[in-house]
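Support request, please re-run this one:
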Amino acid sequence: MREKARRWWPPAVIVVVTAAAGGLVWAVWRAQNRSDLSTFWGFAVAVIVPVASLVAYLTKVRGPAGAGLDRPLDELADSLAGAVMDQWTRAAADRQLLQPEPIPVRWRRPVQPLAGPVSAAVGSRQFSPLPGLSPVREEQLNRGGLRDLYAVYGGLGSGRMIIAGSPGSGKSGAAVLLLLAALKHRQQVPPEDRSLVPVPVLFTLHGWNPRTERFQSWLAFRLQQAYPLFGGRRSRAAALALIDGGKLAVILDGLDEIPEEFRPVALRSLSQQAAFRLVILTRSAEMAAAARQSLLAGAVAIELLPVDPQTAADYLTRVQLDPPPSGWRELIDHLRHARGSPLDQALSSPLTLTLVRDTYGSGDDIRELLDLCAGSGHALAPEDIEDHLLDRVLPAAYEPVPGGRPPRYQLEVAQRALSYLAAQMNSHGTRDLAWWRIPAWVPRNPRVLVTALSVGSITGLLTGLAIGIVAGRKGAIAGTIAGHGTGS
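Re-run finished. Output below.
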């Protein structure tokens, strides 16, 4: 019944509004004292324009999910797969996840409880293994590397996986590589099996309130936002049809970045509503706190491990000249003979290793990083080294890029703006930049002044327009009366 109502109320409103507007314009046209055509046409335009806008909007929202799709679902899924591949291949190239080879992060079963029993996830019959893959065994989930994630994702009976880790441990990079591996596998399976392999999509959980909105509805909206493929009248219907038809797999980043009170609710909602393969990325501590209140039913959890010093040294060797410049050679040798120094600990995450790679060139004096540790007058913490590397990010980001446009803003302007944003976000206790809240950060008095000026200008404009129309109308009526008097 609700679907029927949703299908028929837009055309019903279109008919009623169009008839009412047409009747109003016709009545004015037929009025005996209509003599000023310019006034009439101004009135007609004032009625027709908003009615036309309303009709256009109602035309877009007309129709239930899944109705009136112009393309078969499998063809739509193939088009989406191409768009997702283009999007995330570019993103992976920008992050240098493809060349050089990504940092070989390892993972294991988490020490703290983040999910239910592994046996429940492995023994589930919710999903069959994807074509070309084998069912996952329990021993495969004890430990592994990034290359093993797709076998877990595609062979797990429950289809649900949690990838946890500490800040900077490489969760987002792991998600991008997993998504690209899934798309590559989808391309390589025989054409007759391709419809059995869902298209993976990757979104952050920002903006979803699990208390008031079903996940499928939010996901359809995000698909509309991200991919022009879902433009046009049937965009929402097409997105919901793919979701309900089992043509999508969903990777969700940032569970730890939504409000703390929403996290258990989100896990409970996803447990009940997600009928597709699902991967959640989150920080370990935040996931452990949420899991104490609500589990993601049937999920298996893995935790990304810190990068050991030998692996870090090998990676920095691969991204440098051969042989490395002297300063780089000292840093690499230091890591190979690591003894748990603050520098070794600081460079144990993909984040800090990529910061070293991206903010120090081959010709830069990397010795300053070693001198920072050796010359500090106090016990240096790994966080101090991370802060030093982060301080180098903006200057490196505003270096001219070969073949690219010069930065739109000067480095100093960007530093001031970003420092202000960071201070405001810190004062509000959030890591999420909600752009629509930025106007509220302006002090109250300037906001009141700008609002008053805007409202006053609009009010004055509308008042002047109304007075002009009334005056013109009175003039037309007076002219009509005078004409009748002369004629008599």
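The first strand starts at residue 106 and ends at 108. The two ends are 65 Å apart (CA to CA).
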